[in-house]
Design a protein that fits this description.
The structure is a single chain. The protein is globular, with a radius of gyration of 23 Å. Helix 5 packs across helix 6 and helix 12 packs antiparallel against helix 13. The chain is of the alpha+beta class. The chain has 17 helices and 20 strands. The chain has four domains: about 5-105, Rossmann fold; about 135-205, ATP-grasp fold, A domain (Dna Ligase, domain 1, 2-Layer Sandwich); about 210-450, 2-Layer Sandwich (D-amino Acid Aminotransferase, Chain A, domain 1), CATH 3.30.470.20; about 460-495. Helix 2 (about 40-45) links the parallel strand 2 and strand 3. It binds adenosine-5'-diphosphate (2 copies) and magnesium ion (MG). One adenosine-5'-diphosphate binds near residues 133 and 289. This is Propionyl-CoA carboxylase alpha chain. InterPro entries: Acetyl_CoA_COase_biotin_COase, ATP-grasp, BC-like_N, Biotin_carboxylase_complex, Biotin_carboxylation_dom, Biotin_COase_C, CPAse_ATP-bd, PreATP-grasp_dom_sf. One of its GO terms (molecular function) is metal ion binding.
């Protein structure tokens, strides 16, 4: 069995660090790659060796398969972990890695290929009894026919890019009048984002919840699942808050979804860590959406409730070791919540707000985990995903994990950029989230910027200006104007001090 001595992480930011930490614990040497924009990044400092692979744009650095493999050969690297995003779901890259005699820490190129196409994935699992959303089984070539199918399925429908990912290339069509326009948009978005304009139709599940199952498979045909993650709080079809377990699944549904996920993995001869995504309706019927053939952004919540280090398992599997964890050994213990801290302005449509982290102080303490890639004073490059950190809390119960999250959010001090933290706090406080009765429409249904409590980086000057304006407007109050001001001010103070 091959043993991995030296590992190159073909990624950046928090996930590069997260992978290297486990490698270090396992006594494996680490190699970082970086672009010119990431010279001072934490993953570069953390690694035993690091190599600049090109200029800032990812197409000239993090996506340069040839350069990365060359670095491996030069530095006697045995294996490559691709993280998520970048080359992680690129079957050609996995193939090149294999041909270069290196270990790709992930599934086979064949599995990546099948699951990389949502249509091929559906075809592959067709022999198994996996529930699927009604829709077209192949790419749409004839619009007239597609319209007939759409009215049979019943509006609203969703047009989706077969090669899609990251919530891109997806269009909801409410009725036939909108069909052509949305179709044009979906095709052109799919073409420009994925270089493949193939789209298909799915019924739009109303009040949908996104629930996914983590799987692990070894190279000997053993596949297990590590329960679910609930990821229904999304903006632009992309997750911002995740938790495990889901507040709504019964043990029976959990078991059925787990078995379906294992079947999906089996259908493509899967090994490594993977995620099978389902959409769940309000009657708790679940339907297979797609499989992500990589480590997922939100994997820490699963690690917290199962005690399994997923990266460690990925490395063992890549070395050819059989899984030592049995399905019956696994148990859900406690509850974990993750919020994604993006440099985005929730008050302005979640538009990226990159800049320099003038203040950056992480929360700490019992049940708090921060996976990030930044330090105070660092700039968030415009070239990549604007995620600053993942903040994860863990408690015995859901309530406890949420309370810890609110405490941790209040203690997180970030200034210089707007972040999704105030939005995440709003979610944690919201009755719908608290009660567990929410779906992917959460943001559009409940959120408006005026719901945000001021962020910790309100400056004294801004505070003074707001107070002055408030006092001016309330020069003839009946009685309790100033009491309100005091409360408001102390709340801001509390936030500022964290
Ligand atoms: P997750 O389910 O892990 O949250 P996301 O869909 O949010 O997955 O994607 C994780 C990361 O991978 C993000 O940085 C996203 O931008 C990137 N990503 C996902 N799919 C693609 C794709 N097809 N092409 C390029 N980047 C992608
Ligand atoms: P991606 O590859 O972009 O992650 P997915 O198929 O996983 O694409 O869908 C992303 C998100 O879009 C889901 O989490 C869900 O919120 C929404 N979605 C996808 N398919 C449907 C559907 N048929 N009905 C309702 N919502 C859907
Ligand atoms: Mg998805």
């Amino acid at each position: 069995m091959p043993k991995i001595h030296k590992l190159l992480v073909a990624n950046r930011g928090e996930i590069a660090l997260r992978i290297m930490r486990t490698a270090r614990e396992m006594g494996i040497q680490t190699v970082a790659i970086y672009s010119e924009a990431d010279r001072n990044a934490l993953h570069v400092r953390y690694a035993d060796e690091s190599v600049c692979v090109g200029p800032a744009p990812s197409s000239e650095s993090y996506l340069r398969a040839d350069v990365i493999i060359d670095v491996c050969n030069r530095l006697n690297v045995d294996a490559i972990h691709p993280g998520y995003g970048f080359l992680s779901e690129n079957a050609n890259f996995a193939r090149l890695v294999r041909e270069a005699g290196l270990i790709f820490i992930g599934p086979s190129p064949e599995s990546i290929e099948v699951m990389g196409s949502k249509l091929a994935a559906k075809a592959a699992v067709a022999h198994y009894n996996i529930p699927m959303v009604p829709g077209t089984p192949s790419a749409i070539t004839d619009r007239a026919e597609a319209k007939i199918i759409s009215s049979q399925i019943g509006y609203p429908i969703l047009i989706k890019a077969s090669a899609g990912g990251g919530g891109k290339g997806m269009r909801v069509v409410e009725n036939e009048v909108e069909f052509d326009e949305q179709m044009d948009r979906a095709v052109s978005e799919a073409q420009s984002a994925f270089g493949d304009g193939s789209v298909f139709i799915e019924k739009y599940v109303t009040s949908p919840r996104h629930v996914e199952i983590q799987v692990l498979g070894d190279q000997h045909g053993n596949i297990i699942h590590l329960f679910e993650r609930e990821c229904s709080v999304q903006r632009r079809h992309q997750k911002v808050v995740e938790e495990a377990p889901s507040a709504i699944l019964t043990p029976e549904i959990r078991d059925a979804m787990g078995r379906a996920a294992v079947d999906v993995a089996r259908a493509c001869g899967y090994y490594g860590a993977g995620t099978v995504e389902f959409i769940v309706n309000d009657a708790l019927d679940f339907y297979f959406l797609e499989m992500n053939t990589r480590l997922q952004v939100e994997h820490p919540v699963t690690e917290q409730i199962t005690g399994v280090d997923l990266v460690k398992q990925m490395i063992y599997i890549a070395e050819g070791k059989p899984l030592t964890i049995k399905q019956e050994d696994l148990q859900i213990k406690g509850h974990a919540v993750e919020v994604r801290v993006y440099a985005e302005d929730p008050a302005n449509n979640f538009l990226p707000d990159v800049g320099t982290l003038d203040t950056y102080v992480r929360p700490q303490g019992n049940g708090v985990r921060v996976d990030d890639g930044f330090e105070q004073g660092m700039a968030i490059p415009i070239y990549y995903d604007p995620m600053i950190a993942k903040l994860i809390t863990y408690g015995d119960t859901r309530e406890e994990a949420i309370q810890k999250m609110i405490r941790a959010i209040d203690e997180y001090q970030i200034s210089g950029v707007q972040t999704t933290l105030p939005f995440c706090r709003f979610v944690m406080e919201h009755d719908a989230f608290r009660s567990g009765h929410f779906d992917t429409g959460f943001v559009s249904k409940y959120f408006t910027p005026d719901k945000l409590t001021p962020t910790p980086d309100v400056t004294e000057t801004e505070l003074a200006a707001v107070l002055a304006a408030y006092l001016l407007e309330n020069t003839k109050p009946k009685s309790n104007g100033s009491a309100t001001v005091t409360t408001q001010k102390s709340k801001w103070k509390a936030n500022r001090l964290g």
